Amino acid sequence: MEIRIKKYIVSGVVFTSVLGTLSHFFYQWSGKNPLAALISPVNESTWEHMKLIFFPMLFFSLFISARMKEAAPSLSGALVLGNLLGTLSIPVLFYTYTGILGQNYMIADLAVFFAAVLAAWSTVWKLRDSAKVFRCRIFLYGLAVLLCLLFFVFTFRVPGLPLFRA
Prior knowledge:
- It is a single chain.
- With about 170 residues, the protein is an all-alpha fold.
- Helices cover about 80% and strands about 0% of the residues.
- The chain contains eight helices and no strands.
- It has helices at about 1-25, 25-30, 35-40, 45-50, 50-70, 75-100, 105-125, 130-155.
- Helix 1 (about 1-25) packs antiparallel against helix 5 (about 50-70).
- It is globular and about 45 Å long.
- It starts with a helix and ends in a 10-residue tail after the last helix.
């Protein structure tokens, strides 16, 4: 089973990286379709770029959870926690490096994305059998649903905070 989980996690890294990279362009490619806006960035704000990890990892996590529900009951909580950690790593890493360097660089922005993807999936691997994560899974699911709803709402009702500015 460990080998199977490891294969899913490696596949998850690839899936999240590829779909996250492509989803950067979905909104434009769709002709600015409001449904595409819900799951892909509509501008260059840090908040919108958090969608690059959240939704691809969510989709893959639903797939893994359905396949491994009985064999690895703690895995779904680890997947949600990893997704939340990876998603929140985007602003932390971005604002840390731009605060140090005084500006952003595209190559560093890409590195932030891939580092966040690796942090997310590494968390899943480390916590795949965690009893604590299993006990907290309902709370974690609630946080993920809340973040998803905030992505939906703030896509169309943008707060006037720096995190949301392009």
